[in-house]
Design brief:
Structural class: mainly beta
Radius of gyration: 18 Å
Number of strands: 16
Helix content: under 10%
Distance between the termini: 59 Å
Order of helices and strands: EEEHEEEEEEEEEEEEE
Number of helices: 1
CATH superfamily: Mitochondrial biogenesis AIM24
Largest sheet: 7 strands, antiparallel
Length: about 220
């Protein structure tokens, strides 16, 4: 079994034996004996071929089909992505976490990987789907990346959809603050939000926004 930990803020270290899953190209160093093979269909071993094909099709159609490799072996495996900050999240049994695909670095074999529809990112770069990981086995851990130090919030809270990275619990609702000032270029620039209303959950955002998908103004 592998265990994840953060190493000097910018990398994730997987230590142990067995296998885990990581973004293709995530490895920056290793000590021990490892092999890596690209996952063609599905990371979930107990699924039938048909369900694996359906899961792959869902990931491709939603744009959440990030290239994943299965890493097997024993030793210490270092992973990183563009010098971004790394956080490791340990899930409770049955707990799920929604993660932006571009920020997913690695996850242990105790996680079930798929996509989920959120339908609240129509006018931002958030998108209408996100990657979903659910704790189904032993030691479920997820490694994520953020552009800058992560901001960890407890719900309820309101966040910018262009900064959100991941969250536990129910999906957020969408709130727009659009009025006549928006159409004459006098908006504050904060016109839409994601609202997380279920208490006691966690939301992680990064201090760097993605480029917004909509700009309404009259010059």
């Amino acid at each position: 079994m592998f265990n994840f930990r953060v190493h000097q803020e910018l990398s994730c270290v997987a230590e142990g034996d067995g296998h885990f899953f990581a973004r293709v190209g995530a490895m920056v160093a290793q000590q021990g004996s490892f092999t890596a093979e690209k996952v063609l269909l599905d990371t979930n071993q107990n699924r039938s071929i048909l369900n694996s094909v359906i899961n792959l099709a869902a990931r491709k159609l939603t744009g959440e089909n990030i290239p994943i490799m299965k890493v097997s072996g024993r030793g210490t495996y270092y992973m990183a992505s563009h010098a971004h900050h790394v956080s490791v999240i340990k899930l409770q049994p049955g707990q799920s976490i929604g993660v932006e695909g571009e920020n997913l670095l690695a996850f242990t074999e105790g996680c079930k990987y798929g996509v989920r529809f959120i339908g609240s990112g129509v006018i931002s770069q958030k998108g209408m789907f996100t990657s979903n990981l659910t704790a189904v086995g032993n030691n479920p851990q997820v490694a994520i990346t953020t552009n800058g130090n992560p901001i960890i919030l407890e719900t309820p809270c309101v966040v910018d959809p262009d900064a959100v990275i991941c969250w536990t619990g129910p999906d957020p609702s969408f709130r727009a603050d659009v009025n006549w000032k928006t159409f004459i270029g006098q908006t504050s620039g904060e016109s839409y939000f994601l609202e997380f209303n279920s208490p006691g959950e966690v939301v992680i955002v990064q201090p760097c926004e993605r480029a917004s998908g909509l700009n309404l103004a009259i010059d």
